[in-house]
Amino acid sequence: SFDLNLLKKVLKKLSNKFDFYCILINVKNTNFASNKYKTLFDKKFKNIEDSQLTITELMLPSHSNFSGKIHGGHILNLMDQIAFACASKHSSNYCVTASVNKVDFLHPIEVAERLTLKASVNYTGRTSMVIGLRVESENIRTGETKHCNSSYFTMVAKDENEKSTPVPGIILTSKDEVRRYARSIVRQNEGSNRTSRFNSTV
After folding, report:
1. What CA–CA distance (Å, rounded) separates 133 from 150?
2. Element (H, E) at 172
3. Which residues pair with 145 in a beta bridge?
4. How far apart, in whole angstroms, are the C-alpha atoms of residue 127 and residue 163?
5. Distance CA 28, CA 173 (A)
6. Cβ contacts of residue 116 below 8 Å, gap of 6+?
7. Residue 160: which residues within 8 A CB-CB, separation 6 or more?
8. What is the pLDDT of residue 7?
9. What is the spatial distance between Cα 20 and Cα 33, in angstroms, rounded to a whole number?
10. Over the Cα atoms of the chain, what is R_g?
């Protein structure tokens, strides 16, 4: 069962910033689903797990740089591919990459390691989606697994005329999903504040 009190606290804390039409909580048969939130039920929503993706690739010598480690550009290319695949599966449209949150490479990736990338929709706006990515590498012989990096790709859905088009909301059914959704909002606000600070005139 979903912790309804946690949800109410999140909504109260973010009430001035929350895109209520972008989120639907699985709270049927509760008094929380009042007329105040009726517009939530007029929008199409999807379960997060329906668009979650995992891809695994063997790292080849052709992917390496001069030091024998896997080139960071190759990893970024794979991350962009799985972010696109996840976003397009959720939105049922082609998508473009709008922005990428910072990418910190925590551990080098070796040739012959197995690389696994995981993607999930963390947040949806009107036409955009924040895709959370996690990259792990595994030594085939020892089975040792390393968390190489995590990042967040903002993808925008496009229709057949290449115009931005609305996307379904997401159904949050766990504390982790609520936490990821709330953190996406915080990151967006921090990005907006940073942009405003640099654009301001003295």
Report:
1. 5
2. strand 169-172
3. 138
4. 10
5. 12
6. 54, 55, 56, 135, 136, 137, 138
7. none
8. 58
9. 12
10. 19
Structure tokens at 126: 């009107």
Measure the CA–CA gap between 124 and 23, rounded to whole angstroms: 8
Q: How do the pLDDT tens digits run along the chain, 202 residues long?
A: 445 565 555 555 554 444 443 444 444 444 444 444 444 555 789 999 999 999 999 999 999 999 999 999 999 999 999 999 999 999 999 999 999 998 999 999 999 999 999 999 999 999 999 999 999 999 999 999 999 999 999 999 999 999 999 999 999 999 899 999 999 998 888 876 666 566 655 4
- The whole-angstrom separation of Cα 22 and Cα 168 is 8
CB contact at 8 A, 97 and 154: yes
Structure tokens at 72: 């960071």
Amino acid (one-letter) located at 49: E
DSSP string, 41-99: GGS-EEEGGGT-EEEEEEPPGGGB-TTSBBPHHHHHHHHHHHHHHHHHHHHTSEEEEEE
Helix (H) or strand (E) holding 192: helix 175-199
Q: At what angle do helices 4-13 and 175-199 cross, to 10 degrees?
A: 10
Residue located via tokens 């709330």 = 182
Query: How many C-alpha atoms does 129 have within 13 Å on its Cβ side?
Result: 36
